[in-house]
Design a protein that fits this description.
Layout lengths: L11 H21 L3 H24 L5 H27 L3 H24 L2 E3 L2 E5 L3 H14 L7 H14 L5 E3 L7 H15 L1
Antiparallel strand pairs: 1-2, 2-3
Helix pairs in contact: 1-2, 1-3, 2-3, 2-7, 3-4, 3-5, 4-6, 5-6, 5-7
Length: 199
């Protein structure tokens, strides 16, 4: 009998990816049960773990194709699905919210599959993504959730604010790859503090 190796051997970075998924799922539970403040905080924490998995993989020199695919699968839950739920349950709790949510999930999945296939664009020794990335849409959604706490925003405006950037995920514009640990993590912390103070 021939022994075959398991195709799902997990490296340290993969466990951090799964931790991001766990926190995201807890956040979704909070959201469904009406605890929007804690849902946003969990979303920010999930992003921090998502950023850390890549950092750990690079530091340990343990990047793998399996880890890349796992990260993208988890990103679907952490960003497009979570964003769609915020849209449907908080921002646009109607059929239009369901349609906008579908569009966010569909463009997010297409964007992630495209990235796995094509990778980064290298230009003048700098790395760029093709189009906007999924966490941009999540950030926009979170900021809208905070904004509607203070001002009334027509749903058509909310839809446009979300649909236009979601569409740009599939565009050919270049988005500079920044150091997530030093740029995006502070943004996630600020949004989390905003949720604690204002929601």
């Amino acid at each position: 009998m021939t022994k075959t190796k398991a195709c799902y051997k997990l490296l340290p970075a993969d466990y951090v990816s799964l931790l991001a998924l766990l926190v995201s799922c807890i956040g979704i539970w909070f959201l469904i049960n009406g605890f929007v403040k804690f849902a946003i905080i969990c979303g920010g924490a999930a992003f921090v773990f998502d950023a850390l998995d890549g950092y750990i993989a690079r530091r340990l020199n343990q990047s793998s194709e399996f880890g890349k695919q796992l990260d993208s699968m988890i990103d679907v839950i952490n960003y497009p699905v979570a964003s769609a739920l915020f849209i449907q349950l908080v921002l646009m709790p109607n059929i239009w919210g369901a349609l906008v949510g579908f569009f966010v999930i569909a463009t997010g999945i297409l964007r992630l599959v495209g990235f796995n296939k094509n990778g980064f664009i290298k230009h003048k020794n700098k790395l760029y993504y093709r189009g906007l990335v999924v966490c941009h849409i999540s950030l926009i959604t979170a900021l809208l959730v905070l904004a509607v706490r203070f001002i009334s925003i027509p749903q058509i405006v909310i839809a446009l604010i979300i649909l236009v950037p979601a569409s740009l995920q599939l565009s050919s514009i270049r988005t500079r790859k920044t150091g997530a640990l030093f740029v995006w993590i502070p943004v996630a912390v600020i949004v989390g503090i905003g949720a604690l103070l204002w929601l």
